[in-house]
Structure formats: structure tokens, C-alpha cells
Design brief:
Layout (H helix, E strand, L loop, with lengths): L3 H6 L2 H23 L12 H11 L6 H10 L19 H13 L10 H18 L5 E5 L2 H16 L4 H4 L4 E7 L4 H9 L7 E4 L12 H10 L2 E9 L11 H11 L2 E5 L24 E5 H4 L7 E5 L4 H4 L33 H11 L2 H22 L4 E3 L7 E6 L7 H15 L5 E5 L2 E7 L7 H18 L1
Parallel strand pairs: 2-3, 2-4, 4-5, 5-6
Antiparallel strand pairs: 1-7, 6-7, 8-9, 9-11, 10-11
Helix pairs in contact: 2-4, 5-14, 6-14, 7-9, 15-17, 16-17
Length: about 475
């Protein structure tokens, strides 16, 4: 029997009222952040202080609108043009609205009848990726993030290339994958989850340009074979997270083909460049990959968390999780593209396809070209600005939208410690948000251009801010 509280919780008039207030709040947020009207990207608090605040919050009464305002105020503002930090896109508003729609509908999508519209839309989205990459018989699906996507693709590689049926019979041989030392840590994590262990992750050195050293592949492969490993795959980065550098995918493919191993591309961050007329050359050779992953919530403007896993051959997208679940579907040996739980880790899968489709429906594929091209161009402009300064230096010329740079102190103070303190002061100040990375033992400030409204005036202001910090703090 329904209670008055349950009726209130599902009241459509209340939803309409609170929803309108939220949309109005977010519209104002979008305007003030996009135009730089707000003075800070974030208002820093220590983790324990933030925990205490929310712990005490429920001790007094607050409206839903007040709660939303508080969350907004205490969160990082990715739509601010001075947000130049991690690889998370400022969500395109229409994608956010699509996410609201999907959240309210809550269609699980394990089987077609639980999400008919989103399932059909997902196939269309994957078809769009396949055409852009150049797959003629490709297929795939969307999943929750790059980590899960890489794991899924590498499990497919194991299914296709390992001599044993590990899925059904377990491990009897030592398996290994090859990857650049600059690859994202989630590839390492995926390999460990698969039971490969640290020795089964063959990390090939990167050259001076931070690309995987393709000349070293043969020797590392031979060494692995001598040590009793069966190498099943090689992973190309497109790009690596720290530097934004794309591996030479054509050379990596040539090696994979010669050794008859799986060629996977982790293009979580930079795969969207396939839609950029100016920068798609960075993905030359991608059409040869057995699998590739691309995040929508990084360089395509969708709300998180949305990742495409695309396979060159359609059948590879079905084989990984082959098992029976008769209460869900009738025949396990049919392709059944519309029953998503046959192919993914997620038995309950969100309607993430509508986040892509809403953007395409509203603005066409040209949006992705404009988005990627604008951000990659902005990184090059920032690099040029730094090169013109005497008191700053870059680690390497940017290839994508990532620029690693640092301040050069005029005194004898350790350059790494100086830049660590600069990063900390910037974080606590909150006007700008940038991150940092360590490249071959050296500490660099790291910017990732994610907001298409970040201008040269903003980046010049960042350098000025750093100089002020240096002058007043050290």
C-alpha cells in the first residue's frame, strides 16, 4: 500500500517545479562560467573538512533547490574557461538533458525489451564510429568508461589469440601483452585483473618523442617468448595521458601483423580526432586495429561516463562473454545485437547512447570536428606563448590538447620543488585549475585544453598568475 510519503516523492508537479529550478540554476551557472563571470574554477577545501560539512548538512532542514545550489557551489566547474586540468569535457547542455531523460527513464538495457530506443540508437552511434574509423565490418557497444572498455577489448584479444580457452578452462600458460611505458595505468590494471601479473605486462620504452619505440618491439617480444610467455596483444596509445603523444599506429600494426597478435588502440582521450579534418592524421593506421576505444566524456562533449568499444570484426564483439542466461534470451548462438548483456560486463547498462545521439541530432558530426580542432589548436597556441617566455619552458611540442610546461626560477632553488609549490598554490587559490605530471623524473605542470572557450587571454593570465605566486610566495 502506497504511503503519503511515496506519493510525494513521485509527485509530477513537484518534479516539474524542482526541475525548472534546477535547469534555471544550471543555465545561470553555464552563462557565468562560460563568460568568465565567476571568479574561481573551484573553492578548495580539505577532504576532511568537506566530509564534515556534508555530515552535518542533514542536521538542519534544506530544500531540494538549496541542496542543488550547495552542490554546485562546492564542485569544480568544468565549464569555466580557466579549467585546464583533467580530461573531462564541459558537458554539452543537450547531452546533459539527454542524461536527465535517461536517468528518469532508467531503462536497464540488458535486453532489448528493457531499452528499445536506446539499444537501436546505440547501434547507430557505433555505426557512426565504424564509418569514421574505416571499419567495413565493424561492430561494438558503449560501456562505462575507458578502464572497463580496455579490459573488455583485451578479454576479446585473449579469446581470439590465446591458444587455451581461458574463459571456460582457466589459465594454464603465462599470457602477456605489450604496451608503451607511457600508456595509461588502466591498461596495466586491466592486465592484472585478467591475471597476467606484473611480468605479463611488457612495458616497452618510449623514445625521446614519447612514442613507443617500435625498433625495440622485436627484442622485447623475443625476450618474453624465451621467458615462457605467450604474447597475445599489443596496445597503441592514442594518445598517452601524460604527454598527449600518439604512438605510430601504422608501425605498431605492422609488428602486430607480423607476430599474428591482437592490435588494440587505447584512444580513450584522443580517438575523437578521427572526426577532425585537421587532426585525423594522428590516427593513421587505426583502421587496421582489431579493437579501439574512444571516450565520449573526454573529447566529444558528452556527460560522463560514456565509452565506445569498437571491433574491426563484428564477431569479436560477441565472443568474449559467451555464456548462457536463458531467462534473458532464448538462443545463445544467435548474434542478437539488440541484447546488450551478451556482449558487455554490465548486466544493467545505462542509456548512454542518447548522450551521443542528442549531440549528433542537434548539431551533426561537425560539432566533433569543431570541438577537437578548437582544443588541439588552443594547445598549440599556448605552446607558442610559452616558447616566447624566458622564465617558462615546455617538455615537448604538443601533439594534441595536452601541454606540459614549467616555471624556471631565477635563483638556485630546485625546479621541481618550485613547480610543486606553484601547483599547490594554484589549487588552493582556485582561479585556475591545472594538474601536474612527472616525465622521466622531472616535475611538470600539465594543462589539458577541454573548454573551447579558453582563449589566449586566459592562458596569458595563467602565466601572469604563476609569476605573481613566485614573487609573493618564494
Amino acid at each position: 500500500m502506497s504511503t503519503p510519503l511515496l506519493h510525494k516523492a513521485y509527485d509530477s508537479a513537484l518534479f516539474k517545479s524542482e526541475g525548472e529550478q534546477l535547469v534555471s540554476l544550471l543555465a545561470n551557472y553555464l552563462h557565468t562560467t562560460k563568460t568568465g563571470g565567476s571568479d574561481k574554477v573551484l573553492r578548495w577545501t580539505e577532504p576532511e573538512d568537506e566530509y564534515t560539512f556534508w555530515q552535518q548538512y542533514l542536521s538542519t532542514s534544506h530544500s531540494t533547490s538549496d541542496f542543488f545550489k550547495e552542490v554546485l557551489e562546492r564542485s569544480i566547474h568544468t565549464h569555466h574557461p580557466k579549467y585546464i586540468g583533467h580530461q573531462v569535457a564541459p558537458t554539452v547542455p543537450v547531452s546533459a538533458l539527454a542524461t536527465l531523460l535517461s536517468a528518469q527513464l532508467n531503462n536497464g538495457m540488458a535486453v532489448y525489451e528493457m531499452g528499445a530506443a536506446a539499444t537501436a540508437i546505440e547501434r547507430l552511434v557505433i555505426d557512426t564510429f565504424c564509418r569514421a574509423i574505416g571499419y567495413t565490418n565493424g561492430d561494438g557497444f558503449l560501456t562505462s568508461g575507458g578502464t572497463l572498455a580496455n579490459l573488455t577489448a583485451l578479454l576479446a584479444a585473449r579469446r581470439a589469440k590465446a591458444t587455451d580457452d581461458v574463459w571456460n578452462e582457466g589459465h594454464s600458460k603465462k599470457l602477456a601483452i605489450m604496451v608503451s611505458e607511457e600508456a595509461h595505468y588502466c591498461v596495466d590494471r586491466a592486465a592484472r585483473i585478467m591475471g597476467l601479473g606484473s611480468d605479463g605486462i611488457i612495458k616497452v620504452p618510449a623514445g625521446d618523442n614519447y612514442q613507443i619505440e617500435t625498433d625495440a618491439l622485436e627484442s622485447y617480444y623475443t625476450s618474453a617468448i624465451k621467458n615462457g610467455f605467450e604474447v597475445i596483444a599489443i596496445v597503441g596509445s592514442a594518445p598517452s595521458t601524460s604527454t598527449g603523444v600518439y604512438d605510430d599506429l601504422e608501425e605498431v600494426y605492422a609488428f602486430a601483423k607480423a607476430k599474428k597478435i591482437w592490435f588494440h588502440i587505447d584512444a580513450a582521450h584522443g580517438g575523437a580526432a578521427i572526426f577532425s579534418k585537421k587532426y585525423k592524421h594522428l590516427l593513421n593506421g587505426a583502421h587496421n586495429a582489431d579493437s579501439i576505444i574512444i571516450d565520449g566524456h573526454k573529447m566529444m562533449g558528452t556527460s560522463a561516463i560514456t565509452t565506445a568499444v569498437i571491433f574491426k570484426n563484428s564477431t569479436d564483439s560477441y565472443a568474449t562473454f559467451e555464456q548462457k542466461a536463458q531467462y534473458l534470451w532464448e538462443k545463445n548462438d544467435d548474434a542478437d545485437w539488440f541484447n546488450m548483456a551478451k556482449r558487455t560486463f554490465e548486466c544493467t547498462k545505462s542509456m548512454m547512447s542518447v548522450r551521443f545521439y542528442a549531440i549528433i541530432n542537434a548539431y551533426g558530426l561537425q560539432f566533433f570536428d569543431d570541438f577537437v580542432t578548437t582544443l588541439y589548436d588552443a594547445a598549440q597556441q599556448f605552446s607558442n606563448l610559452i616558447a616566447a617566455q624566458q622564465d617558462f619552458e615546455i617538455a615537448l611540442e604538443p601533439v594534441s590538447n595536452i601541454v606540459c610546461f614549467r616555471y624556471k626560477p631565477s635563483n638556485q632553488e630546485d625546479i621541481n620543488e618550485v613547480n610543486k609549490r606553484i601547483r599547490r598554490v594554484l589549487l588552493e587559490d582556485g582561479e585556475f585549475y591545472i594538474v601536474a605530471t612527472t616525465l622521466r623524473g622531472e616535475y611538470y605542470l600539465r594543462t589539458t585544453f577541454m573548454n573551447p572557450f579558453t582563449t589566449g587571454a586566459h592562458t596569458a593570465g595563467l602565466l601572469k598568475k604563476i609569476r605573481v605566486i613566485e614573487a609573493t610566495s618564494f
